[in-house]
Design goal:
Strand content: 5-15%
Number of domains: 2
InterPro entries: BP-dependent_transpt_permease, MetI-like, MetI-like_sf, OppC_N
Membrane topology: Multi-pass membrane protein
Strand order of the largest sheet: 4-3-2-1-5
Pfam family, one: BPD_transp_1
Helix content: 55-70%
CATH topology of the largest domain: MetI-like fold
Family: Belongs to the binding-protein-dependent transport system permease family.
Main location: membrane
CATH superfamily of the largest domain: MetI-like
Structural class: alpha+beta
CATH class of the largest domain: Mainly Alpha
Length: 364
């Protein structure tokens, strides 16, 4: 007769699977993670940072279509497949939005696209300059599903590539906060006394400084940039983890299995890492999910202030900053779409945090 395992981990997993919002949020986060890693494989504009600009078609509505004249370049692109997949293609081609074109012999006549009812400039190129290239292949129709931003860049591509920053800042920030927070909280809670008082003083001083102000100070000290923001956010989130770990260790360090480990002669490092920490990780996991959401919001705020990820990197917060004034100019989607992306990802992490809290609650 088969026996069902009643281990706490399996019971928690079963409870988590019964939470629809938690499971849905988990798979949504997995989807965003896959998009973040392989953003350039999904983005219509796979140039680096999805930064292909066409000022003639700026601020177009979702679903906008235009004919694009693509002129090959004599510059060779020696990028590897892996480099293109993860860092985008170094665009050597020239793309020109056009409204009409005509091929006469070896000459291609075209009219550049002009918005607001204006007439574009008429130009021509000699097809003999592009030997071995079919004339019809130079003209492609492009559809911008989310429209274009104020620089004429594909908004959908910028959203997909921008997901990478918002998603990975959560991982890096939470990893840094866990490493520092678990270390400091473990020492304070296990040894107590003056060590605990000193570490709690550091925690209270760090806690008293407004998070955004501290992140700005660290960012200015380290410099503006991609990794600097990740490190700055992580260095401000460890205090919550440290307080939780300290409180949990204080409550369990006098329990019988810890006393037995001491009686067997195990050193303090082994007792903390092998016996205490595995039994107090449930609240740490829950607070880590909340820190994911907080890190995304902090990064978005920094990008909105202009000290986050720097142009031309795509960032949801920077996209809101560039287009928030369009809300009153009849094109609110330029700011609302990245705003909804931030909201949905933060909501997913908060829901999965609530689901993990309920699943890991041994009293329920």
């Amino acid at each position: 007769m088969s026996q069902n395992s009643s281990s706490l981990s399996q019971l928690a997993l079963q409870k988590f699977k019964q939470d629809f919002l938690g499971v849905f949020s988990f798979w949504f986060i997995v989807l965003v993670g896959v998009i973040s890693v392989f953003a350039y494989a999904f983005a219509p504009d796979n140039s680096q940072h999805a930064n292909q600009m066409h000022l003639a078609i700026h601020s177009k509505k979702p679903g906008f279509k235009v004919q694009m004249l693509i002129l090959p370049s004599s510059i060779e692109n020696n990028q590897s497949f892996i480099d293109k997949l993860f860092f985008g293609k170094k665009n050597t081609e020239t793309e020109i939005p056009i409204s009409t074109y005509q091929i006469t012999g070896e000459t291609l006549f075209y009219t550049e696209y002009a918005s607001d009812g204006l007439e574009g400039a008429e130009k021509s190129i000699h097809l003999s300059n592009f030997q071995g290239v079919n004339a019809s292949s130079l003209i492609q129709e492009k559809t911008f599903l989310f429209g274009t931003d104020k620089y004429g860049r594909d908004l959908l591509s910028r959203i997909l590539v921008g997901a990478r920053i918002s998603f990975f800042i959560g991982f890096v920030a939470v990893f840094i906060s866990l490493v520092i927070g678990i270390f400091m909280g473990s020492i304070a809670g296990y040894f107590g006394g003056k060590v605990d008082a000193f570490i709690m003083w550091i925690i209270n001083v760090t806690w008293s400084i407004p998070t955004l102000l501290l992140v700005i100070a660290i960012t200015l000290a380290l410099g503006k940039g991609f990794w600097q923001v990740f490190i700055a956010v992580g260095l401000t989130m460890w205090v919550e983890v440290a307080r939780v770990v300290r409180g949990q260790i204080i409550s369990v360090k006098e329990m019988q299995y810890v006393t037995a480990a001491r009686a067997l002669g195990f050193n303090d490092f082994r007792i903390i890492t092998k016996h205490i920490l595995p039994n107090i990780m449930a609240p740490v996991i829950v607070i880590s999910a909340a820190n994911f959401a907080a890190a995304i919001l902090i990064e978005s705020g920094l990008s909105f202030l202009g000290i986050g990820a720097q142009p031309p990197m795509a960032s949801w917060g920077a996209m809101i900053k560039d287009h928030y004034n369009y809300i009153i100019l009849g094109k609110p989607y330029l700011a609302l779409i990245p705003g909804l992306c931030i909201m949905s990802l933060v909501m997913a992490f908060m829901l999965i945090g609530n689901a993990l809290r309920d699943a890991l609650d041994v009293k329920s």
